[in-house]
Amino acid sequence: MGWRVKWKSRRHHDEAGVALVEFALILPIFMAIALGTLSAGQAYSAKLDLAHAAREGARYGATIRANQTFSSGNWAANVKQLVIDRAAGDLSGTGAVICVSLVQGSPGVVVGPATAPHPTSNAQSNYTTQANGSSPCIANETYPVTSSDPGRRVQISVSKPSKLEVMLYSIQLSVTAKATSHSESNS
User: Alpha-carbon distance 113 to 42, whole Å?
Assistant: First the structure.
């Protein structure tokens, strides 16, 4: 009977070494999955923050008049600043791109002195943050145009670089969000 007890305890001791080797083999794979899950969660959280900021900016831009006078900046600059403020710091880093446009018609063109039936007295560059001063954020987007709705919409597009990291590998991503809102103002 004493021999059996000794043999069982020796066998248990040998299995403990095997379990340690198995753990050492599985640990890197588990850590890669855990790190990948965490970095993917951070990227998804940034995407949600950008989507929220874009929607808030579109809502704000839709409620103010196109010819609104601001203490500083123009319509597009003020809407853009609101988007940055609502992004929870996600748009403050390098590489962030924020586009704001007030468009009208189908397809949407940036409003200005020539946009009928509701022209604005200000130049197109006041209503878009595109570098050329006349392009919409979301090109070739169509909106219904009726006698009571000239198809005036606020377009917001935001993007920022992000990274997905899995152990020794790193994948560069671009997190983007777009929002469009019907403008309540024809002036």
Answer: 44
